Amino acid sequence: MNKSVKQRLFGSPNIQVPVIGQGTWAMEGGDRAKTIAAIRRGLDLGMTHIDTAEMYGGGEVEQIVGEAIDGRRGEVFLVSKVMPQNASRQGTVRACERSLRRLRAEVLDCYLLHWPSNHPLVDTIAAFETLVRDGKIKTWGISNFDEEEVEEAVRLAGPGRVACNQVLYHLGERRIEHYVLPACEQHGIALVGYSPFGQGRFRSHPVLDEIARGRGATPRQVALAFLTRHPITFAIPKASQISHVEENAGAGTLQLTEAEIGRIDAAFPAGRPRRRSLPML
Ligand code: NAP
User: Fold this and answer.
1) pTM given for the model
2) How far is the CA of 135 from the centre of ligand 1 (A)?
């Protein structure tokens, strides 16, 4: 199989993950067999980072992912998320065990807190560390944390424990570049950009069209290459159609030049720097 998507370190010197992965939100709504075939095609093409969550379809999406990766678990970097209301010390452990059953997996590669919770973060982190010790997760991370929340997580957990922060990041929404991305970089935390196509609202632009033409690529591939241009960034587009999966995987080898990056930067400005202005879907 042609595994073309390039990989980079994921918050740890020992873990390599493809820069383009596969999101799964709302996959329960489509044709199940086609969706599973699309995920498997993505694995064939090297998009082995699969992002899911207990929230998606009330657990149904984890079951779909479990079916898709059946017999191929060894290829996959499997990520799921605990809902904030479940993120107490014991609730996190129980939620993880439920996710593992639905995913038909013995261990998650990374387990995330879906967004900041009312449960004390120190309890969620203690639960994550228990899950690591018990061999149920390999690493853990956070999602929708702004720069101050990132600092707090690192303060509570110690250096080198937070693997990633998953945040909203697409060409029309680049605010995380000002403070969240630098905070993650400082602490060696991978930054996973979700909704890289603005949840299906992607529109091309003459600059993307022109760069794409010049590179024998598509505008979406250029957009994904831009979003993963930084050494700590990853993107997880969701695609239930095989043609979409194939197009997205094609971005995994596209390296933009500084001049191309400059043109995209000017066409899709990052906006004014403002602290603690973390956008969420
Ligand atoms: P997205 O990836 O920005 O967009 C998904 C939409 O784009 C789908 O309608 C998909 O169509 C379409 N699409 C994908 N590739 C395409 C292509 N090459 N050509 C044309 N259309 C294409 O939106 P998202 O699902 O919101 O975000 C991605 C993932 O991030 C989620 O699935 C989830 O895993 C994660 N996420 C996390 C959070 C969080 O709070 N941590 C929040 C939101 C999302 P088809 O499905 O028909 O192929």
Assistant:
1) 0.97
2) 30
